[in-house]
Amino acid sequence: MFIHNFKYCLKILINGKVTIFWTLVFPILLGTFMYIAFGNVMETDEMFKNVDVAVICEGDGETVVTVLESLENGDEKLLNVRRMTEEEALAAVKDGEVQAAIYTSDLRMIGYNSSYKTTVIESILVQYKQNQAIFEKLAYGKDEAGLKALMEKMTSSSSFVKEKASTNGSQNELYNYFFAVFAMSCLFASFSSVFTTHNMQAYSSTLGMRRCVSPVRKSVMIVAEYAALCLIHFIVELIALLYFTLIGIDFGDKYPAIMLMLLVGCMIGLSIGVIVGSIPKLKQGGKVGIAVGIGMLLSVLADLCISGIKESIEKTAPIINRINPAALITDSFYSLNVYSDYSRYTKDMLALVIEAVILLVAGFMVIRRNYAKALA
């Protein structure tokens, strides 16, 4: 009977054009419009760029300025140096025109905020101070060869920083929108399980009444249909993944982990649908409306509409991101793109699996109670 129910559910779902539209066609259309809207902005924002620096030249500071300006040259230049007065430099730092202001007198740096750019500047200044100390010792000892070698090293940009990617994925923050589209698509799988679970209830339809009195074990029926729904929606997500990859969205090279994450995402979406579909004495339209509301709310909180919402939640109420399945899905995508290890990804996956199991078990218990009431 498991195979029979499995095949029966597959046929129903394949013929369900509305569900396929909302879980496949709509996310693909939405992602396509996003891709067109972003245009050539993709792949340009998050990579390393030249650091804008204001230099406040005080006293005998021309040597420092010369070294900093030397880092503007070459194919891998690091800095854009701008000479300013102290008032101009502080105003430029505050307005974000430059990342930092440097006093040549004591190599003191003032930065408006902490970022990798200010870290680069700090590393340059630290190395300059170290070289300066060595330079003074060599000058005192009149070591001309050592002085020449040191000057070449101080004016070489390669001695300060070398760009190295931790993963092969993109670190563009605009990709969070596409991650959120996948999260929404996974949660919209709840529509299918709402339909299926609703039609299992004796109070919902004549089909539900027949199923209620059928000799098939209800656990077998639920598991078979859940497995069929999971298979179909997993295939749908793979089609969407292939489409977005072909149009140029860079998901990195960890596709097995991405596929596993999409499978778990479908499971959590279907589990939500089982819970909603098992609500007694509520029409199917009302249940679908609840599923739509849940899916959209969780997706919006995961940066579907406005980038930065999830980050704000992380600062104020991080527990929401730990239990929001859409946020966990987008965070899984992000961790696979940015980090070389799987520790953060594993935590997200574990949380998703636990939530899916809890919701599925709870829904199964409600369905069994509804069956018992119908037969009483």
Residue share in helices?
A: 55-70%
- Please tell me what the overall shape is: elongated
Low-confidence stretches: 43-48, 157-161
Strand count:
4
Q: Could you give the order of strands across the largest sheet?
A: 2-1-3-4
**Helix count, per DSSP?**
16
Summarize the helix and strand pattern as letters: HHEHEHEEHHHHHHHHHHHH
First and last CA, distance: 25 Å
Structural class: mainly alpha
Give your account of this protein's structure.
Helix 8 packs antiparallel against helix 12 and helix 11 packs antiparallel against helix 15. This protein has two domains: 2-42 and 172-375, no CATH class; 51-159, 3-Layer(aba) Sandwich (D-Maltodextrin-Binding Protein, domain 2). Strands 2-1-3-4 form a four-stranded mixed β-sheet, sandwiched between helices. It is mostly helical. It has 16 helices and four strands. Helix content is 68%, strand content 5%. The radius of gyration is 29 Å and the shape is elongated.
Concise description?
The protein is mainly alpha-helical and 376 residues long. It has helices spanning 2-15, 17-38, 62-70, 86-95, 116-141, 144-154, 175-187, 190-198, 206-213, 218-247, 255-277, 284-301, 309-316, 318-323, 325-338, 343-375; strands spanning 51-56, 79-83, 100-103, 108-111.
Any key phrases for this structure?
4 strands, 2 domains, D-Maltodextrin-Binding Protein, domain 2, mainly alpha, 376 residues, 16 helices, four-stranded mixed β-sheet
Topology readout:
Elements: H1 2-15, H2 17-38, E1 51-56, H3 62-70, E2 79-83, H4 86-95, E3 100-103, E4 108-111, H5 116-141, H6 144-154, H7 175-187, H8 190-198, H9 206-213, H10 218-247, H11 255-277, H12 284-301, H13 309-316, H14 318-323, H15 325-338, H16 343-375
Parallel strand pairs: 1-2, 1-3
Antiparallel strand pairs: 3-4
Helix pairs in contact: 1-10, 2-7, 2-10, 5-6, 7-11, 7-12, 7-15, 8-10, 8-11, 8-12, 10-11, 11-12, 11-15, 11-16, 15-16
